[in-house]
Every structure is written in C-alpha cells, then in structure tokens.
Amino acid sequence: MVRSISILSAAVLALLLAGLLWLSFCGRTPAPPSSAPGVSAPVLTVQESAPETGPDPTDWQLTLVNPWHPLPEDCQPQLATVENGHQVDQRCAAALSDMLAACRAEGLQPVLCSAYRTWDKQASLYENLVAKRQAQGLSLTQARESAATEVAVPGTSEHQLGLAVDIVDAGYQVLDHAQENTPVQQWLLAHCWEYGFILRYPSDKGEVTGIIYEPWHYRYVGREHAQAMETSGECLEEYLGQTTQS
C-alpha cells in the first residue's frame, strides 16, 4: 500500500513538473527570425520630404529677357489695349488696370507712358540714343554699349514681351532717378507686388540685370512670384538662378 502511494506521488510530481515546463516555454515571446548569413536585417527609416524645387523658368510669367537672353523666337503676345492707347499681354491687363485704379483711389496720378513695343519701335528708340551718345563724343562702339544699358537692344527688351510697363507721376514725367521720390512711385514700390508686378531694375542690381536703375519700369510676374521676390529682395535673374551673363 505504501509502495503504491509512493509510485502515485512520483507520477503526480512528474506531471506537475512537465506542466510547469510547458507553461514556461509557451509564455515566452518568440524571438524574431535572424537574418540569413551575410544579409543585413532591414532598417526602417523615416522618409525624407522631397526637396523643394525652384521657380519654373518655362512659366510664361517668368520669361527672362535681358542682354544675354533674347526674346523667344516664337514670341507673339496676344495684346489687349489698356489706356492711353498702350497695349500689354492680355493675361496681365486686368492686374495692371487694378493696380492703376488702386493707386488713383489713394488720390495719386499715375501715368502709363510706355508698354508693349514692336521691334521697329524698340529699334528706333535704341538707335536714337546711340546717335545721341555719338553726338556727345563717343565712338560708335562706345555709343552702342552705353545706349544698351538704358534702352535695350531690339530683341532683348521686356517691352517686346508685353509684360513690362513704364509708369510715371503726372506731376513729374521725367525718366530719371528723381522719379523714385514721387508719390506715385512710393506707392507702387510698396504695393506693386500685390498685383503681380515687380520693380524690374532696382538700384543695386545693374550688374545682374544689365540695365541701369529705372524707378519707373515694372514687370508682371504674377502675384505669387512677385510676393516671393518682395520678401527675398531678389531681382528676376536672381530668383531664377540666372545671375551669370550667359
């Protein structure tokens, strides 16, 4: 009898030990499978955001025309008449009209004195200035170089794009540096970007633009780009990353 009880106790004890071992094994968290020899385990990385891209130089609003970038060969602007018989690219006509109206609403008197120019008109203005410089004693080569900094050589003028305008104050209709001090120019310098325009030839950008300071020459680039350039202080060449003379 005693021997039977001992055998039974041993059997029960063996079952208890087996149960404990099973629970211990099943309660463990399985380890992840190891990588095959010579193969690195995959590493999760945070996806980086795509790099910001610059302005699109093919955007019609940003067409670059300067002494080193002539008019596109297929340039044929669709024109709209705005005021004083002047015409501009029809896509910026409403913005120009709104800007002039807002300026006048402040009691000021802006005068649109130049806008789109044909090739012949641009050539006439340029050759007239060349002749004037020659009369002042410059050689033909010197006269052409000097004139080109004030009146663009035909084929390199923004006016031929239909996106550039010259605006003066009715109280001072002279195209010189004093124009910047007029009430109209002060208003335009502060607000032109709101209508998609920039002062195209600032006083400190002559070496980049190839044109002298002109505090009356405004260029349409669209509100988004105008605001960006107003914030950065860049001229169009700098904004497009085209600061080399090539």
Quickly count the helices: 8
End-to-end separation in angstroms reads 112 Å
Counting helices, strands and paired strands, the structural category is alpha+beta
Number of extended strands: 6
Within the largest sheet, what's the order of strands? 3-4-6-5
* Gross morphology: globular
List the helices and strands in order: HEEHEHHEHEHEHH
- State the oligomer: single chain
Q: Using the CA coordinates, give the radius of gyration.
A: 37 Å
Helix content: 25-40%
Provide the residue-averaged pLDDT.
84
**Biggest β-sheet description:** 4 strands, antiparallel
Low-confidence blocks of residues = 1-51
Strand content: 5-15%
Short key terms for the protein model shown above:
disordered N terminus; four-stranded antiparallel beta sheet; 246 residues; alpha+beta; two-stranded antiparallel ribbon; 8 helices; single chain
